[in-house]
From TrEMBL:
<feature type="domain" description="HTH tetR-type">
    <location>
        <begin position="30"/>
        <end position="88"/>
    </location>
</feature>
<dbReference type="Pfam" id="PF00440">
    <property type="entry name" value="TetR_N"/>
</dbReference>
<dbReference type="InterPro" id="IPR001647">
    <property type="entry name" value="HTH_TetR"/>
</dbReference>
<dbReference type="InterPro" id="IPR050109">
    <property type="entry name" value="HTH-type_TetR-like_transc_reg"/>
</dbReference>
<protein>
    <submittedName>
        <fullName>Transcriptional regulator, TetR family</fullName>
    </submittedName>
</protein>
<feature type="DNA-binding region" description="H-T-H motif">
    <location>
        <begin position="51"/>
        <end position="70"/>
    </location>
</feature>
<dbReference type="InterPro" id="IPR009057">
    <property type="entry name" value="Homeodomain-like_sf"/>
</dbReference>
<keyword id="KW-0805">Transcription regulation</keyword>
<dbReference type="GO" id="GO:0003700">
    <property type="term" value="F:DNA-binding transcription factor activity"/>
</dbReference>
<keyword id="KW-0238">DNA-binding</keyword>
<dbReference type="GO" id="GO:0000976">
    <property type="term" value="F:transcription cis-regulatory region binding"/>
</dbReference>
<keyword id="KW-0804">Transcription</keyword>
């Protein structure tokens, strides 16, 4: 009986270790990756020059495992850049859900963009955010801009891809103001939202 329980337990452990998430990554590997990225985000926000050794030590993950997943600091920064893309996409979804007038969506967007920029302020201008700088047609924000312009809520004289580029560029400028200490996160988010409303909303009375 004891032997049977031991075997069953071992099988259960093996099954859990071999389980994968939607991306095909083993669940234990995903937990380790998330632990390292969480530690890196916390540490680099306070000390942008922190090295891999410190991040590995504070992540709680074995150093060999950390270096196997992220051989260099550049590999780690690229993974964090991917998180920036994911979170900025989530900001666009959150800003447009539930549906609201364009002015309200743009105000939500302003605050969301600056909050994400504040979290990743150490990253500078990562190459990994290229999907946001050169978006596909199904990028959430691009979809909303296209539909809002077609519906007459946004200016018809501005192409959707131009408006997208302006949102992206002004968002970077707003984050730089926060990094320089000239604006708080709340102030920059408010100003960014108001600027987008004034620039993009079609009907002046809706601004």
């Amino acid at each position: 009986m004891i032997l049977s329980v031991s075997i069953e337990t071992c099988c259960i452990i093996c099954w859990v270790d071999d389980a994968t998430d939607a991306s095909g990554l083993r669940l234990d590997a995903r937990r380790n990756r998330d632990a390292v990225l969480t530690a890196a985000l916390r540490i680099l926000a306070a000390d942008p020059d922190a090295g891999m050794r410190r991040i590995a030590e504070e992540s709680g993950v074995a150093r060999a495992t950390v270096y196997r997943r992220f051989p260099t600091r550049e590999h780690l920064l690229r993974a964090l850049a991917e998180l920036v893309v994911e979170e900025q996409r989530a900001v666009a979804v959150d800003a447009t859900t539930p549906p609201a007038p364009a002015a309200e969506v743009l105000r939500r967007l302003g605050h969301g963009i600056v909050r994400v920029g504040e979290r990743y302020r150490f990253a500078g201008s990562p190459a990994g955010d290229a999907p946001l700088r050169d978006p596909a047609a199904d990028e959430p924000l691009m979809v909303w801009l296209t539909e809002a312009a077609a519906g007459g809520e946004l200016r018809a004289d501005l192409p959707a891809d131009w408006m997208y580029a302006m949102v992206h560029g002004l968002g970077r400028a707003a984050n730089e103001e926060v990094i320089a200490g000239r604006r708080t996160t709340e102030e920059a988010g408010d100003l960014l939202g108001r600027t987008l409303v004034r620039a993009l909303v079609a009907d002046p009375e809706r601004r």
